[in-house]
Design goal:
Blueprint lengths: L10 E2 L4 E5 L8 E4 L5 E2 L3 E6 L2 E10 L14 E2 L7 H14 L3 H8 L12 E6 L10 H12 L5 H8 L3 H10 L2 E6 L19 H11 L5 E7 L5 H14 L3 E5 L7 H11 L4 E3 L5 H12 L5 E4 L11 E7 L7 E2 L5 E2 H12 L2 E6 L4 H8 L4 E5 L10 E6 L13 H12 L3 E5 L8 E4 L16 E3 L4 E3 L6 E2 L14 E4 L3 H11 L5 E4 L7 H12 L5 E4 L12 E6 L13 H13 L10 E6 L5 H8 L2 H14 L7 E9 L2 H13 L7 E14 L2 E10 L5 H11 L7 E6 L6
Parallel strand pairs: 10-17, 10-18, 11-13, 11-14, 12-13, 14-17, 19-29, 20-27, 20-28, 26-27, 28-29
Antiparallel strand pairs: 1-4, 2-3, 2-6, 5-6, 5-7, 8-9, 15-16, 21-25, 22-23, 23-24, 30-32, 30-33, 31-32
Helix pairs in contact: 1-2, 1-10, 3-4, 4-5, 6-7, 15-16
Bound molecules: adenosine-5'-diphosphate (ADP) and zinc ion.
The site of zinc ion (ZN) has 8 residues, from loops.
Length: 730
C-alpha cells in the first residue's frame, strides 16, 4: 500500500542503540540495545522491563545517555506492521500538547496488544494421495468431491459444504486422504464500492461535494448546513473520492454506538459495512479490526474519538460529523478534543479534514473567520423541506398544573399531533425519575457519599444513583436522619417522570422512553430507532441520545420540557451548548413532507439563546457570544487550561494546593486563578481543587505549565490532572 509519508526507514543493526517507547505513563522513551535482529523506527518489539517483558515501539535512534554496556537488549520483533510515521508523529504531538506522557498516548494507538502478535493460522483441507486401503462411504465421497472442487476450506466449512458431520472430515484427515495447508484468512472487510448509484445532488450540494472531493493536501473545511440539508450525502462524495484515490477514510461520529441509521445509509451508498470502532466491540473484533486498519484492508472506518489513534497506513480523509458535539472531548486519562486532534492528524498526514455541523462550535467559526478553515454552506433543507417553526412557552404565564411538567399549550399541541396520526417527541436532558429526593419531614436530601452530588432516583431500576461515580442504593424506607417512615418526595422531573406523565395524559398513545440507561447498547438502540421509524411509537420521550441525527419522517412535533436546563452553572459554553443542543433537537421535527413544529418550555423567554432559536438567527447569536468571549479573552480568543489537584485527604490537599499557588508561573499575558474548590469538590471519594490558567495566544501555555509542575511536584496519593482547553467545568 503506498504511503503518503513514505520515506525509507532507517535500519538499526545489532548493538546499535534505539529509543523504545513503552505504552506506560513514563516521562519518555527508554534506550535499548538492538539484538541480532535489525529493527526500524515503528517496529513493535518486546523488551525487558523491571524483570518482565513489555511491548513497545521503536521510536528512533537512542538518546545515548546510558552506556550501551548497561543497556538491556531488545528481546524480539513482533509480527505486527510497523506503526506508520504519521501515527508516531501524531502521538508525540498529542503528548506535547496535552502534557500527557508520550507512552500514555502510545497506549491509545496500540490499544489492542493481542493485535500485535501473529494472527492465528487459518488452515484448509487439500486432497492428498488417498491411501490404498481407504474405505469409501457415501459421506466420505461427498467430502472428497467437495474438497476437489474448490480452494481449501476449513474442516468445519468443508463438512458444511459436503453436508456431512465434522467427524467425517476428521476421519479423512486422520486417514491421510486430506491434508491441512495454511491459507490466508478471509478478509474481514470487503472493499467499499464507489460505482453504485448515488443520489442526484442539488446544485449547492454538488458544489460543496466537488470542493471536498478535489485532490488536496492538508485543508480543513467546515461543512455548515442546517439539519437535513444533506451534509452526510455531501461528505460521502469526499469518502468516495478518497477511496477512488486508493486512500483510507475515517469518519468520527459522537455516538457511534447509536448510529444504526448512519450505517444503513453507508451500506446503501457503498454496498458494504464500514469498519466500526468504539468501546463496545468484543475483544476479538477489536483485535481483527485493528489489524485490518493496519494492513489497509479496512478502507473506511467509522468510529468514536479513539479511532483517531488507529494505525492507518494510508489515511486520505477525516470527517468529523457534528463537530460541535461535547462527546468529542475525552475527559479521562489523556484529555484531548478529537475535533482539534483530527485537524492535527490531517496536517501531519497531509490530508483534508471535513468538520460537519448545523451549529458549528465557536472555535471552528473563529478559524473560518481567520481564514484558516474554508467554509461550504448548505443553507436549505433537502427537497424543499421547511425548517421547523420554533416557539416558546413561557412557564411563568402558562405553568403546568401542580405536580405536572407539561404546560397546557404543549399538551394541546401533542394532542393535535397525535390526532393527525403523526409522532411527537418530548425532550429532557436528564436521566432518571427525579434529580433530587428529600425528606418531607426534616428536609434531608439523599446525597452521594463519594461525590458532591445528589442521588438521582431511577424508578424503573428501583435505585438511587449517583450520575458521577455510579454509586447506588435502594430507596430507603425511612429517613436516615429523622427516621420518619415513607417520607421521601421526588423533586423535579427526569425523563422517566415525563414518560409517566405522558402515559397518564395521553392514554391512547404508545409512549416510548429512550435514555442511555433504559436503551443500552447498540442493538437495543437500533431496535428502538426502528420502532420509532416504523411508527410503532407515537410519543417518544428521551434525553439527548434522541437528538443525534436521526431521521423520523412522521415526527412533526418536538417539545422541550426544560429549555433552561443547560444554562445553569458557571460553564463558559453554557449558552453556546444549549443553543447547539436545542437546535439539534429541533432539527428532528418535520424532516420530510410534513412541516415540523418545536415548542420550548422556558422561564427565560428573553434569554439570547431563546430569542435566537425562535428567530432562527444563529449568526447574530454567535456574533454576540463571540464578542463576550473576546472581551473576556476566553477561548477561542485566549487560551485556557485547568489544573485539577485531587486527593483523599482535604487538609493535605489544601496544603499542596497552596504550595502550587506559591510557585504559580508569573508571566506577561498569563494569569493563574485559584486554587478554588472544583465545582465537583468531591468526586469518587477524592477532594478536588482547581486552578484555571488563562493566557493570551502568544504565550507558550504548555511550557509554562510544564515548568510549574516540575518546580512543585505532586506526590501520591495526591494527583494533578492537566486539562488543556477544558470543556467540562465540573
Ligand atoms: P444532514 O446530515 O445535513 O442532517 P442528511 O444528509 O441526513 O442531512 O439528509 C437529510 C435527508 O435528505 C436524508 O434522508 C437524505 O438521504 C436526504 N437527502 C439529502 N440530499 C439528498 C439528495 N441530493 N437526493 C436525495 N435525498 C437526499
Ligand atoms: Zn458519586
Amino acid at each position: 500500500m503506498p504511503s503518503a509519508v513514505a520515506k525509507p526507514a532507517q535500519i538499526f543493526y545489532a548493538d546499535s542503540v534505539v529509543a523504545v517507547l513503552l505504552p506506560l505513563p513514563l516521562a519518555g522513551a527508554y534506550d535499548y540495545r538492538v539484538g541480532d535482529c535489525p529493527v526500524a523506527a515503528g517496529d513493535v518489539v518486546a523488551v525487558p522491563l523491571a524483570g518482565r517483558e513489555s511491548l513497545g515501539v521503536v521510536w528512533g535512534a537512542g538518546r545515548g545517555d546510558v552506556a550501551p554496556a548497561r543497556l538491556k537488549t531488545i528481546l524480539r520483533r513482533l509480527p505486527a506492521r510497523p506503526l506508520p510515521e504519521a501515527v508516531r508523529r501524531f502521538v508525540d504531538w498529542v503528548a506535547a500538547y496535552t502534557l500527557a506522557a508520550p507512552g500514555a498516548v502510545l497506549k491509545m494507538a496500540i490499544s489492542v496488544p493481542q493485535a500485535l502478535e501473529a494472527a492465528a493460522m487459518h488452515r484448509g483441507c487439500r486432497l492428498s494421495e488417498p491411501p490404498a486401503a481407504l474405505k469409501m462411504t457415501e459421506a466420505r465421497r461427498k467430502v472428497l468431491a467437495a474438497a476437489a472442487a474448490r480452494p481449501p476450506l476449513s474442516p468445519a466449512d468443508l463438512a458444511r459444504e459436503a453436508g456431512v458431520g465434522p467427524a467425517v472430515v476428521r476421519s479423512l484427515l486422520e486417514a491421510g486422504a486430506l491434508t491441512l495447508v495454511p491459507m490466508a484468512p478471509p478478509p474481514l472487510f470487503e472493499p467499499p464500492r464507489t460505482d453504485l448509484p448515488a443520489p442526484v445532488l442539488s446544485d449547492g450540494q454538488a458544489a460543496a461535494a466537488a470542493q471536498l472531493a478535489a485532490p488536496q493536501d492538508f485543508a480543513v473545511w467546515l461543512l455548515d448546513g442546517v439539519t437535513g440539508s444533506g451534509k452526510t450525502e455531501v461528505y460521502f462524495e469526499a469518502v468516495a473520492a478518497a477511496l477512488n484515490r486508493g486512500r483510507q477514510a475515517l469518519v468520527l461520529l459522537p455516538e457511534i454506538a447509536l448510529s444504526a441509521q448512519w450505517l444503513g445509509r453507508f451500506v446503501r451508498r457503498f454496498g458494504v459495512e464500514p469498519a466500526v470502532w468504539h468501546s463496545e466491540l468484543s475483544d476479538a473484533r477489536r483485535r481483527d479490526t485493528w489489524r485490518a486498519v493496519a494492513d489497509g484492508t479496512a478502507r473506511v472506518v467509522v468510529g468514536a474519538r479513539s479511532a483517531l489513534f488507529l494505525p492507518f497506513p494510508d489515511l486520505g480523509l477525516i470527517v468529523v460529523d457534528e463537530e460541535h458535539d461535547g462527546a468529542f472531548k475525552q475527559e479521562e486519562g489523556v484529555t484531548y478534543h478529537a475535533r482539534d486532534m483530527a485537524v492535527v492528524r490531517g496536517r501531519i498526514g497531509g490530508l483534508p479534514v471535513v468538520l460537519a455541523s448545523a451549529t458549528p462550535s465557536l472555535e471552528t467559526l473563529a478559524n473560518v473567520q481567520a481564514g484558516r478553515y474554508g467554509r461550504l454552506h448548505l443553507p436549505d433543507r433537502h427537497a424543499g423541506a421547511a425548517l421547523p417553526e420554533i416557539a416558546l412557552i413561557d412557564l411563568r404565564r402558562t405553568p403546568p398544573p401542580r405536580g405536572f411538567w407539561l404546560a397546557p399549550p404543549l399538551t394541546a399541541a401533542i394532542q393535535e399531533t397525535l390526532d393527525r396520526g403523526e409522532q411527537a417527541m418530548l425532550f429532557l436532558n436528564r436521566r432518571g425519575y427525579a434529580p433530587l429526593t428529600l425528606c418531607r419531614k426534616c428536609g434531608y436530601r439523599l446525597q452521594c457519599p463519594h461525590c458532591t452530588a445528589w442521588l438521582v432516583e431511577h424508578r424503573q431500576a428501583g435505585r438511587m444513583v449517583c450520575h458521577h461515580c455510579g454509586h447506588y442504593v435502594r430507596p430507603p424506607d425511612r429517613c436516615p436522619d429523622c427516621e420518619a417512615p415513607d417520607s421521601f418526595v421526588a423533586c423535579g422531573p427526569g425523563v422517566e417522570r415525563v414518560a409517566e406523565e405522558a402515559i397518564h395524559r395521553f392514554p391512547g398513545a404508545r409512549v416510548g422512553l429512550m435514555a442511555s440507561d433504559t436503551v443500552s447498547g447498540p442493538h437495543a438502540a437500533a431496535e428502538f430507532v426502528r420502532r420509532v421509524a416504523d411508527h410503532e411509537i407515537d410519543l417518544l420521550v428521551g434525553t439527548q441520545i434522541v437528538a443525534k441525527g436521526y431521521h423520523f419522517p412522521m415526527l412533526t412535533l418536538v417539545g422541550v420540557v426544560d429549555a433552561d436546563l443547560g444554562l445553569e452553572g458557571g460553564d463558559l459554553r453554557a449558552a453556546e451548548r444549549t443553543f447547539q443542543l436545542l437546535s439539534q433537537v429541533a432539527g428532528r421535527a418535520g424532516r420530510a413532507e410534513r412541516p415540523g413544529r418545536v415548542l420550548l418550555q422556558t422561564f427565560q423567554p428573553d434569554h439570547p439563546v431563546m430569542r435566537a432559536l425562535v428567530a432562527g438567527d444563529r449568526d447574530t447569536f454567535i456574533a454576540a457570544e463571540a464578542e463576550c468571549r473576546r472581551d473576556a479573552a476566553m477561548p477561542p480568543f485566549g487560551r485556557l487550561a485547568a489544573l485539577i489537584v485531587s486527593g483523599p485527604d482535604a487538609t493535605l490537599l489544601d496544603e499542596h494546593a497552596r504550595r502550587l499557588a506559591r510557585c504559580a508561573p508569573q508571566a506577561e499575558g498569563l494569569q493563574v486563578i485559584g486554587p478554588a474548590p472544583a465545582p465537583m469538590a468531591l468526586l469518587r471519594g477524592r477532594h478536588r481543587r482547581r486552578f484555571l490558567v488563562k493566557a493570551t495566544r502568544s504565550v507558550n501555555l504548555q511550557e509554562a505549565l510544564r515548568q510549574w509542575l516540575a518546580a512543585c511536584p505532586t506526590k501520591q496519593p495526591l494527583r494533578v490532572q492537566v486539562d488543556i482547553d477544558p470543556y467540562s467545568f465540573g
